[in-house]
From TrEMBL:
GO terms for biological process: monoatomic ion transmembrane transport. One of its GO terms (molecular function) is porin activity. This is Outer membrane porin protein C. PANTHER family: OUTER MEMBRANE PORIN C, PROTEIN YDDL-RELATED. Its main location: membrane. It is a multi-pass membrane protein. It comes from Salmonella typhimurium.
Amino acid sequence: IYNKDGNKLDLFGKVDGLHYFSDDKGSDGDQTYMRIGFKGETQVNDQLTGYGQWEYQIQGNQTEGSNDSWTRVAFAGLKFADAGSFDYGRNYGVTYDVTSWTDVLPEFGGDTYGADNFMQQRGNGYATYRNTDFFGLVDGLDFALQYQGKNGSVSGENTNGRSLLNQNGDGYGGSLTYAIGESFSVGGAITTSKRTADQNNTA
């Protein structure tokens, strides 16, 4: 919606009229939702660019007083030419750098792990360093390093607080991908996270 003098702002989103037919009563029925978001960047100088993104989901299958909506991602960062980028906020874990390759279907894609599950997908408190084309020296070789701060019982993508399964202690991770030509890539990711006290007490 705006692109001038090194400043860009994009608006994106979708409305999904969705209905499940299932024997599972918890899933059967209307699943309509809407997503809306902004992403932008501003060029500080020829070597430094600031950027950020925000995405929000609103459920369309609830009553008007339910307030069933949440922030999917919200982060900001800086990109330093070939030296890479660093951002912080609610973002995707580095494991998703690889598992996202299967998350391409209109529905039911990338369902192995949901949000707020250690460093598997979307989560809070991610500090992420990314480097594309290995400092500009090797085309197609990308890597990322990530830290996630502890998330206890505060809310994740819901308004009811975090269950034990959605908490995490301090975590670290990294990913490495290499594009071989235009249609084939290989990659791997590894993460490790501590458990919260609540999780340890119920183990």
